[in-house]
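Dear colleague,

Following up on yesterday's call, I've attached the two folding results inline so they're easy to grep. Please treat them as preliminary; we haven't cross-checked anything against experimental data yet. The first protein's sequence and C-alpha cells come first.
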Amino acid sequence: MNAPILDYAAVGVGPANMSLAALAHPVEGLRGAHLERRESFSWHPGLLLPEATLQVSLLKDLVTLVDPTSPFSFLSFLASEGRLYRFLAADFPAVLRAEFNQYLQWVAGRLPSLTFGADVHSVDFHDGAFHLRTVEQEVTARHLVLGTGLTPSVPEPFRPLLGPTVFHSGEFLLRAPEVTGRRVVVVGGGQSGAEIVRHLAAGAAPESITWVSRRSSFLPMDDSPFANDLYTPDYVRRFHALPSGHKARLLEQQRYTSDGIDLQVLQDIYRLSYRDEFIENNPGRLRFLADCAVTAVEGGPGEWKLAVESSGPDDAPAVLAADIVILSTGYAYALPDFMAPLDARLRRDGGMLVVGDDFSVAWDGPAENRIYLQNGARHSWGVADPNLSLLAWRSAVILNSMLGETRYPV
C-alpha cells in the first residue's frame, strides 16, 4: 500500500525542530515526521563543558513563551525529575548547559514524531508533495521543514590540516586532546573560545594557552534591556521588513548582543590569569592576542607554526608555535546536500535565500506546498535567528502557516 501523505516532514532534530514537534504534538489530526540522521539526541556534545551555562533565560525553552502550560517546558522537566525545589535553592545565575541538554533529551524521549537513525539523502517534489528518501524508507509530505542546523566555519589555511591536533571547537570534548605540558592556541574571540580557554586554564596543565582574536579586544555580550528588545517578535518582524542593505548594517552593529562573551566567563579568565602571574609565579602561561589574525600555517602534528599579523598597538609574535590548535571560529548556514534536486528552484537575493514572513523559502513550486527554514535566516530575520530566544515563537509561526489558522498567538 502507498504510504500516507503527511502534513509536513521536518529534517534535523535539534532544539528548533524539537520545539516544532513539541508544539505540534497536541494539535489533533496534524501528521508530521521529524527525521534525524544521528542515532540519538545530543546538543553540541563537543562543547558540553561542565561549567558552561546558557546565555538566555530558562523561560526561553522549547515552548514556554508560546504555551506556558505545555508539558514540554523546562519547569515541567524539573518537576518530573524531582529537582524543582533543589533547583530553586541552588539559585544558579544561569542554567547549566549540561542540564539544558538533559531537558532536551527528556523531551526527545516523549515525542513520538521523532525518528533517529534516519539519514535523508535526497528530497524531490512531484505529484503535489515532497518526497524524502532515506536508506530504508520514503516519506511523503505536503510541507518540508529544514532544521539541519549550522555547519562549523573553518578558516582556509586550516582546512587541509584538520585532524587530532587541529580541530573546530565543536569537537573539543569529542577529541578529548591530551593538553598536559603542551602549547595550546585557541583561535577565535567569541563565547566558545572563551569557554575553552577558561576550561583549560582552570582544570588542565598546558604549558601555555594563547588566545588569538581578530576583534579589538575580548568583548562582552551586550545583555542590557534595550539590547534584549532585539530578541522579541515585535522587533524581528520590523527587521524582516527592512531593505537588505539596511539589514546588513544592523547585523554588524548588533553582533555583540549575541556574539559577545558572557561577562562571568571573562571575569573568570582574568582571575585565572592573575592567579598564574602573581600567585603561581607563572607569568605568560595565559597570553591574549587581540587584533590579530592567523594568515598561514606550516609544520605538522609535532609542531604547528602559525603566522600572525597584528593590526593593534600591542606587540604580537610574528609566528606562534603550537602543539594543539582549537578553532573557535563560529558557524554558518549551508543548504544541506540532500536539497540538491530542489536547489535551482529556490529563490535567492544576492546569493542568500529569500525567506518570507512565515519562514518559508521562496521557490517556483505551488504556493500550497512550502519549504520552511529553521535557524538559517539570520540575513533575513536578524541576530535572534540562530539564538534560543525565539525558538518557540518561530515554531508557532510555522505551525500557524501550515494549519492556515492561528493555533498559537504570535
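Below is the second protein, in the same order (sequence, then structure):
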Amino acid sequence: MGDSKAFLNIPRQEAGYRPVSERITDYSQVEQTLNTNSRKLQASRCMDCGVPFCHWACPIGNKQPEWQDALFKGKWREAYEVLSSTCDFPEFTGRICPALCEKSCVLKLSCDQPVTIRENEAAIVEAAFREGYIQVQKPKRNGKKVAVIGAGPAGLVVANQLNLKGYSVTLFDKDEAPGGLLRFGIPNFKLDKNVIDRRMNILAAEGIKFEMGVEIDVNHLPEGFDAYCICTGTPTARDLTIPGRELKGIHFALEMLAQQNRILEGQTFPKDKLVNAKGKKVLVIGGGDTGSDCIGTSVRQGAISVTQIEIMPKPPVGHNPATPWPQWPIVFKTTSSHEEGCTRRWCLTSNQFLGKNGKVTGVEVEEVEWIPATDGGRPAMKPTGKKEVIEVDMVLLAMGFLKPEQPQFADNVFLAGDAATGASLVVRAMAGGRKAAAEIDAYLTTKN
C-alpha cells in the first residue's frame, strides 16, 4: 500500500467519454483514457483491504490490490504479470466488464467512490502491449490434441490455457472470424475489433489452430482428438411471440449488431437484407446492455427517434435497499448510448405488433404493475388496462437468450461458458473457460 491516505485525498476520476456530438458520427471507441500520472493516482486510492472484497467478487479471482499497488509505484511489468496470472485477456474485460469488483470495493460500500479498477486494468494491459511485455510463447508439446468448439470468450480461454500447457489445440467456429459475441455482438464503439485481432495473432503464433467458418454438429464431433470442449454460447435469442410477429421490420438485436460489425469490416449486404435504422422510428424492447448497444447503433445509423421499453419497474437511483451488498445492486444505469438520445420507459408489456402492407407500423403496449409476493418470492405482474400504441418503423428484440439444452456427452467432452450456464457475463464465461481447461488437463493427465 503505497499511500495509506490516498483514498482520503484523491477523488475518483473516470476517463469519461468523447463528446456526444463527436462520437455519434463514427464507430470508434467512446471511452477515453487518463494520462499516466492520473492513472497512477487512481491506483493509489486502493486501500489494500485486509479482506479484499474486490478479489472475492471477481469471477476469475483477479488480485486487484496487488496490481493496483504495482501500478501506483510505476511497476507496469509487475502489474501486468500479476493481472495476467488470473485473467487471460485483460484487454477485453478492461473494456466491457461491468466490474463486479468495483461494486464490492470498500470505497464503494462506504462512500460510493470505488477505485477505478476496470479502467486501471485496461491501462495496465495496454502498457504491456505498448512496452512489449507480451511476447509470443512456444510451449513444449505433450502429444495430445484437444478440439474447442466455439471461439467466443470461453472457448478462447480454454484454447489459450491448454495450449500453454502443451496441448495441440484446434479452435472451431461457425463464424468467419474468432471472438463470438466479442466480435459479432458488442459494437465497435465499445470494443474495437483491432483489439481482438491483436490477441488472435498472438494465439495463432503460439500454435493454436483456427478453423473458422466450420459448422460443427456437437452430436458428431470431429475425430482425432483426445478431448473436446463445447463453448458454443447461447445461440437462440428470446423471442416475442405476440400477434403481428411476422411483420417485416421486427428483428432480433444481434441481426443488427452483427451485421453492422461485419459492414465495418468491409462486408456488403443486399438492400433487402439490411437491418438499418436510418430515417426510422426505432423501438428497442429490453432494458439490458444489448438493448443499450442497439440504441447506440441506431443513433449512428441515423434513426429519427429511439425508444427503449422494459417490462420491469424503473430501478432506484444510486442505492436500492432491495438489493443490498453482497447482491448485485439493481440501480438506475445510464450508458454512453443512453446519453446519445433515447426515450426510456418502464413497466410496459407488448400486446401486439401492428402493421400495414406487411410492415410494422406500431406496437400496442400496456402498462403493468408488480405485486410483491406475500411469501417473499417472485413478484407477480398485473396488467393495468392502460394501453397505447407506440408508432415504429423498426423493432429490435433485446430480451436475452435461452439456455441451450445439451445432449449427453462422452467422458472426454466438456462444457464451458454460456453453453454450460446459459447467458451470462463475458468475465464469467472466461472463468468457466479456465475451470474447463483445468478439468480437461486433469482428465487427460490421469487418463494416461
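For the second protein, one point worth flagging: The longest helix spans residues 426-447.

Best wishes,
A.L.
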